[in-house]
Predict the structure.
Amino acid sequence: MRARGVVPVLVAAAALLAIGVGAGWALFAPRSEAFPLTETQEQRRIELAGEDYDPGSVRPVAEAEGALAWFATQDDGATRCLILDVGEDSQSTCLAAEEELGPGLYAALPVAASDAGDDEDSFSTDSVTAVMLFSTADEPMVSIQRWGGSSTLFAQFRGGAAPEGEGTHPRRL
């Protein structure tokens, strides 16, 4: 009788152990550093690798807001670079590894505003920015953000003069 009661307990324990090992592996297994690139992005990686960067150092590190950020090194790793691609536009910035204390590496590109209409009087651009810092394990960490621009600077000159009494005379006390 006792042997029959032990079998379900052993089966349940084995199932719980398998679930625990599977969950632990899924949650804590090392992740691949790279993410899959499109054919166009892979061609861009090959182009960048042919430039003044160390062989094998060019790798994608972040993708967001229609932008792709790359990490690369120069001078046998003595200089670290951030390359930001947005469509056909690109900007790169490099800094010696010992000089990276502080705000990190920064790159920005102006892009057409996402809400820009076909109105020819409207002028609006966004800016896609990337900031690269390094972790305590010396791995690049990148933040990509898109900042909306505004045409309010130009809009203030449309429509003529300000209404009477608004902004035309100094305020008297």
Summary: DSSP finds three helices and seven strands in the chain.
